[in-house]
TrEMBL record:
It comes from the Bacteria. Residues 1-21 form the signal peptide. Gene3D superfamilies: alpha/beta hydrolase (3.40.50.1820). Residues 105-343 form the 4-O-methyl-glucuronoyl methylesterase-like domain. The keyword S-adenosyl-L-methionine does not apply. This is Acetylxylan esterase. Keywords: Hydrolase, Serine esterase, Signal. Transmembrane segments: none annotated.
Amino acid sequence: MPNKSLIVLSLLFFSFLHTRAQDEFNYDESLVPDYPLPDPFVSQQGEVVSTIKDWEHQRRVEILRLFEDNVYGQVPGSMDELSFNLVSEDKEAMDGNAHLKEIDIRVGRNGGSISMRLILFIPKSATKPAPVFLLINHRDPENIDPTRKVKMGFWPAEDIVERGFAAATFHVKDVSDDNNDTFKEDILQTLYPEQLEMKNGMRGLGAWAWGAMRAMDYFETDPQIDAKKGAVVGHSRGGKASLWTGAQDTRWAITISNNSGCGGAALSRRRFGETVRRINTNFPYWFTDNFDQYNDQEDLLPLDQHLLIASIAPRAVYVASASEDQWADPKGEYLSLVLGTRVHREIFQMNGNLPADLPEVESPVHLPYAGHHIREGKHNLTPYDWEQYMDFASRLYGLANE
């Protein structure tokens, strides 16, 4: 006969685990705490910000510094060498519909150098420089196969080209491995080793953003690309890096966050789904060391993610979620977009308002400065998502009428 004491102890143990899991990972909207948020329009000195000049030269500057110091770390731009080498070319790619270029972007500093491979398909139908989508790819390289023998919905390059856009991508392993044991081995140890000694130094996500900026450096040199119509896209962890790219680099016309969740578009103070503690525990190499001090202390953050979206203004921001991706907190992502784009509306006087409540599934909202949709399904980047991004860009660039 089973020992009753052991049964009781087992029940208590599993009850404890269940309670602990509920405490740490909340999926119940009624359990979201009250959370005051930092005001985009009030500086750290308590001064009200109401003009474009004050926003761009005061408030935006301090917001970026707060994110550098507390979340993503610095993004150093110093380099001694920047060069572009066309290593492969096929002017009849995609059955003659695209011009494929594979470019090695070489960066040197203090005697060290790294190369980052950029894959670029340009539509042959283009009669003028093409707008471009850049995907920050952290998944298996087969997702971005330049031979197109393997085609994945994660990067539907053929569909992008057919719509008249250039399709570009790079793999994060060229700048910083998505691995806690090896993330230092590329640009951090080779180009910017001093960052590793800093509590607010660059880490993985910042390195990926740095890579996206180098891709834009190249786009500005290619006469077949309209670099003023560039969109940076990232999914999940790549979406976090995409938002940081758009905040840091004003050359991007559109910044797209796909299911980016905690440390991306979602409000940290909601403590819904993935938390600051969980993400710092599982992925300590993504964020700067200072972010650890906010584990279970989100209210002490001098910022929240709506300010990251605000810092991108007046350039366009698109936030997308998935209905079954509660870990990424779709409502928190949307609220962040609504609150962050107040700057677009109130400082830059841009037209249109996002609905107050989270829109219905697969009911995209496209405004001149912001886009949103929540897709049916799980955590992924799909052809449906890409269609919405291309529709948004076509409308923003006036391509729909051409």
